[in-house]
Amino acid sequence: MPLINHNDLRNFISQLMQSYGASEDEATLISEHSVEANLVGHDSHGVIQIPTYIDRIQRGHIKPGAEIEVNNESRTTARINGNWGFGYYVSDFAMKLAIKKARQDNIAAITVVQQSHVGRVASYPLMAAKEGMIAIMTADSGRGPKMVVPFGGKERKLGTNPICIAFPSNLEGTMFVDMATSSVAAGKINLARSRGKDIPFGWILDKDGNQTNDPNDFSQGGAILPLGADQGHKGYGLSAAVETFSGILTGLGFGVSKDGIHNDGCLMIVMNVEAFRDLEVFKQEVTDFALDLSSTEVASGYDRVYYPGEIEHITKQDRMQNGIFVEDTTVANINKFADESDIKGNLDTFLH
Q: Are 13 and 345 in contact (CB under 8 A)?
């Protein structure tokens, strides 16, 4: 199985994005966030997305170098308008501003509008956790195409609407939860299709409203189910809340816009732990709590219990040492854009 060193992949993606108009700073963040998703095992949000971003640049849906506006600003709040810039760049800016405000006034809430795909949502709350903050982030696709049915329905009405919460600690790998409120993220269905694999029943419906394990049914008029299987009303309710935070509160609205431009509306809330507890005491208690969870007696059929976020940490250590697997279809798609650019070489150079 051909693998790519994470540094080589990061440098290549940065060069490629610059060749299609991204600034050096934008390209650096795009490559860092996307390759990080691969490193922690979320390949659906990794470099498989790069061809889509380039396509959106060419269609005018992403505007490299877009000026970020900070509107309606107070000491603890702001509304960020990304003016259709790269989601990675805009959300990175927004989270840094939220951290700055929370450090000053203990809590901050920021909404973000008119930006492209933000990738793996956890990337941003983890920035705050490293600074001794608790962070919550919700995201949706604004008025972009919907993928998820309300509980009991078969018509697409919602986005996959992820939510992430991250906590500071003394753990080597941060304790956090990062999840779609649908049964699965759409990228995981596309990843299965790219790799020629079936998906579990309970993920999607086909165009007739029947459950299926064929990932191709999704792009042929199917839809994703809400999180929770027969308890899907819980995932549905949580998804509606995320849509309200990230679509309506941000001002993007709900439903689908005729212009078809993808936009990730986001809400970021950052809390300074020291406003409530001594930071070092809190971090140690979170550490002890996580280790207590992972020491749970193991049930039949499982190898061990992991604390939330631990699997990503373990996966990252392995992939940093051994390399990242990128499926042939993604390599071919990226190479197509590389061959049409002014950079030398393509991903095949780095496969080993």
A: no
